[in-house]
Each structure stands twice: as C-alpha cells, then as structure tokens.
Design a protein that fits this description.
The chain is α/β, with parallel strands linked by helices and 353 residues long. Helices cover 35% and strands 11% of the residues. It has helices at 43-52, 54-65, 90-104, 134-148, 151-156, 178-195, 206-210, 228-231, 247-256, 287-301, 337-351, and strands at 72-79, 107-114, 159-162, 199-204, 236-241, 265-269, 309-310. A seven-stranded parallel sheet has the order 1-2-3-4-5-6-7. The protein is globular, with a radius of gyration of 19 Å.
C-alpha cells in the first residue's frame, strides 16, 4: 500500500447550517447521529458543504502530508442512503465532483460508504436490516453499485469499503451470528466486485480489536458476529483503531492465520489533540507518545511500516471540530501539535521511498 494514508474525517462545523429540520426522522437507537453529532437527515446539507469546501480541504490535506508526496490517499465518507433514487443523483454528482477534485490534486480517494442501516431520506426502520433482511440487503447492494458506477469513481477509486454493522442496534446483544455476518460480508464484496475493478476492504472499528481480550483470545473473539471467521475471504481490511493494548496481538493473529495480508491491511489510527484538550486524553499520555507507540507497533511488531492512516477533523471554529485536527481552524498552513508530528512522519516515509 501507499507509504502513508490520511484518514479524512468528514466532520464539519454545523453552526452555519439550518438547525431546524424540515421533518423528523426516526434514528437508530444505537447511534442517533454521526461522529460530528450531525443527525443523519442533515447529510444532504453537509455534502453541499463538503463540495463547497473541497479546495480548502485539499489544501489542508496536502499541507499535512507534503504536497509533493507521490502516494497520498484520502478516505472519503459517503452515507449510502444518499445514493437513493429519491435524490435523483444529486448527491452522487457531489460525490463524483469531490472524488475527481482530489484525484486531480494528486490524492487518490478511498471510498468509505456509511451506515447501511439507513435508507430513503435518512430513515431508520426496524425492517431495514441488511444483515438478516434480503430486501434491505439488496437495497444496500444497489446503493453500493450506484455509487461505484459513477465515471469519476470508476476512473479514480480502487478501494471501497462499507461501514460495518458491529455498532448497529440490529446486531447488538448477539442478534447477529458469525454465520450471519460472514454471509453479509460476502454479499457486500460481491456488490463491490460487480461494480467494476475495485478491491473490497472490510471495515471494522476499534471495538473489534477490543473483543480479542484477554489474549490469546481464541474462540472467544466475537464482536456482534464479527470474528476471524467472518473477516476471512475479504480483499482487504480497513480497520479503525486507537493506541489500544489489544491491537498488536489481534492484528498479529489475523496476519499469522492468513486472514489478513500486510499489503492489504490499512489501520486508521485515532488520537486526539490531548495536549490542547485534556478532556480528550491520549492513552499514552500525550500526542507524541500516542503516535510514536502506534508507529512503533506498525514497524517493529507488525511489519506494516509505510501503511498507515490517521483520523483528522476539518476544524472550522468550534472546539469539538478540531479535537482530532491536524490543522488549526480556518487555516491551511498552521499545524496543530498532532499535525506537526504527522508531517514529520510523512517526510520520514518519503525519505525511504
């Protein structure tokens, strides 16, 4: 994989957006908003904001990783329900524009399709369970193919992922078995492959790694149906994580068992600007210690050196908008402590190309 991957977190200041929804939507009780605390129905407004800010976003991205780096990738998040025919392709047009813009700027987009439990105009309903309901699953497969079928994505995207169901209320409390998730993951991969020459990287987050504890975790490793058996057979893995004690042992086991492959494993690391925001602590006590520990694990313990991504937030004013940011709000040049460290790592990686 490319020497360094930057996770571009679609997390915006929402104060400039309308705070009064036109109508109320039902929400998944397990997660009533995205990681920026935006209700799902507001993603229609947010994607217009992403489109309007694409120049500034690209400038921030390249400022952190080095504008001359030959192997930059940004993970672009797009909620699946925005591909619904009710929108007449409007949001797919926006996605195409953002993807083409990043590609023209020398950054390869990786597509992360989000929250498959939602449909229509951001609606959540108990019948729309893509793991167990074949009609809902077919809806998700059509949405995947609608997004990946767009010409700009066919031209510029090689890796696609779909947000996992491990956090969904549909799969909590052991409602989804390993067999259920295995079948569902295979259906997602089939949809990605049917759309074109794409690799399907299965998405999981840090709770998947946490489930491998105590170690060695053996057959007890199962988070709402996500287990080594249901991860096997995927083209690759896009795994969110933090500097967590379970990570090395869990990833090493999957590598040794042949379930993961080093050139198709991308760990998306999250560390906050804890030096600036003590209320958002770093597991190792500081940003520098967090990032150094994570990079040490990649290089010394897992031999995944040169393959990494980092959560970012595009801060534009509110404190919560740049807790994870690499660049200070309303700037394309002023790096946070985290951003400075990421840039040093990127430059070090470039020196070994």
């Amino acid at each position: 994989q490319s020497p360094h991957r930057k996770k571009k977190r679609k997390k915006k200041n929402t104060r400039s957006l309308s705070t009064t929804p036109a109508h109320t939507k039902a929400v998944d009780p397990s997660l009533d908003g995205d990681l920026g605390n935006n209700s799902w129905y507001r993603h229609t407004d947010l994607w217009q904001l992403y489109l309007d800010r694409r120049d500034a976003d690209l400038a921030r991205f390249k400022m952190v990783l080095g504008s001359t780096h030959p192997a930059m990738r940004a993970i672009v998040y797009f909620p699946l329900f925005l591909a619904d025919p009710v929108y007449a392709g409007r949001h797919l047009d926006q996605l195409e524009s953002v993807v083409a813009h990043f590609a023209a700027g020398g950054v390869e987009p990786v597509l992360l399709l989000g929250r498959p439990e939602f449909y229509g105009q951001g609606t959540f309903a108990s019948v729309h369970n893509p793991v167990l309901n074949l009609t809902a699953r077919a809806y998700v497969q059509r949405a995947v193919q609608a997004a990946l079928g767009r010409p700009a994505l066919q031209a510029h995207v090689t890796i696609a992922s779909v947000y996992w169901m491990g956090l969904s209320s549909f799969c909590q409390s052991a409602q989804c078995s390993v067999d259920n998730i295995t079948e569902y993951n295979a259906a997602l991969q089939q949809a990605v492959h049917a759309a074109g020459d794409f690799a399907h990287f299965l998405h999981v987050d840090g709770l998947f790694w946490e489930a491998c504890w105590p170690q060695p975790c053996g057959t007890s490793w199962n988070y709402n149906g996500y287990a080594p058996a249901s991860v096997q057979g995927m083209d690759g893995l896009l795994g969110e994580c933090w500097t967590q004690g379970s990570l090395v042992g869990a990833v090493r086991r999957l590598l040794e068992d042949g379930i993961l492959h080093r050139n198709r494993t991308l760990l998306v690391h999250a560390t906050p600007n804890c030096d600036l925001f003590p209320s958002s602590p770093c597991p190792m006590g500081s940003v520098a210690a967090d990032l150094a520990t994570f990079q040490g694990w990649l290089q010394a313990d897992l031999a995944l050196n040169g393959s990494w991504a980092e959560w970012d937030a595009l801060g534009v004013g509110a404190e919560q908008d740049f807790v994870y940011a690499a660049v200070y709000p309303n700037s394309t040049t002023l790096l946070t402590p985290k951003g400075q460290l990421l840039r040093q790592q990127a430059l070090a990686d470039m020196a070994h190309l």
